[in-house]
Amino acid sequence: MTLATELARELRVPMRVADLALEELTEALNRGWSERDSRVSMRLPSRAIRVKIAVPKEKIQQILDDER
Which of the pair, 47 or 20, is modelled with greater confidence? Predict the structure, then answer.
């Protein structure tokens, strides 16, 4: 992500969404969430508004099993 945004800046290509994504990933890393997968940055908005979204593990496993 960093490499892509740096190259875009060098070539003067606007990449607003990529810059925002990089900013959120960087914030997630700064919070110590580096061991989690790349979806971790999606937790930032829910934390900001103090909303907890929970899905039972069984439901997630069922969806994963259905995809196979």
Answer: 20
